[in-house]
Hints:
It comes from Tumidithrix elongata BACA0141. The chain is α/β, with parallel strands linked by helices and 255 residues long. It has a single domain (3-254), classed as P-loop containing nucleotide triphosphate hydrolases (Rossmann fold, 3-Layer(aba) Sandwich). The chain is built from nine helices and ten strands. It has helices at 46-53, 95-100, 104-107, 115-127, 143-156, 173-188, 223-226, 229-236, 238-254, and strands at residues 6-17, 20-31, 35-39, 61-66, 69-70, 78-81, 161-165, 192-196, 209-213, 217-221. It has a six-stranded mixed beta sheet, with helices on both faces. Strand 9 (209-213) and strand 10 form a beta hairpin. The chain is globular and about 50 Å long.
Amino acid sequence: MSLSDFMLxxxxxxxxxxxxxxxxxxxxxxxxxxxxxxxxxxxxxxxTLLKAMLDLVPTSKGLVFFNGRTLKQQRQQVAYLPxxxxxxxxxxxxxWNVVMMARTTHTGWFRSPSRQSKEIVREALERVEMxxxxxxxxxxxxxxQQQRVFLARAIAQQADLLLLDEPLNAIDKKTExxxxxxxxxxxxxxxxxxxxxxxWGDALHNYDELLLLNGQLIAQGSPTDVMTMDNIQRAYxxxxxxxxxxxxxxxxxxx
Length: 255
């Protein structure tokens, strides 16, 4: 694969918090039109990595390039979905207006949305099956519905790169199936998705590649290549390696 095939490149990205090294020399490349799972234990730095790429937390060193230019120069081409815990769900705003926020950079802060932006928002809400609830306050929705709304906002931004922080956390099965379907659709459109996740086992095969992280990048590649016993032990420790072995034996026993 040539350099021109890569959309996103991270070079030696490092983050320190009050003298504590959160991330050390993270480097990787991601191809366009792919869905990448960012995995690792709690505290591994997954959310920190996404924020550092977007310059939302200070970095001690490192560069992030997007289509050959620094990511800072083209933030409008990146859609970011933060963790649920970072969103004020009690803020008085409707579903429609949450998604319309994605069009601010296109219309400006003090101008009315264009007919095109309204159509884009409508299509995004229909895609996540939330258009009928467009006038509902975001606080009145279930967790799965709220997550769909914020995914619609990411879609409405029409970005080429989507950074999604645990979008499948604490949602219902219907929403999970819908989100995974949208992943596949966005991939077919040539979008690149970097998704922080906590999935395990067969669910990891929803991703084209995995980045296994624990303060540093431990492995990158296909789910089969990344989730080896050696890599699991390095990332999660001996306890989870033992759990993985037990799960595999139980699966073989009941097959």
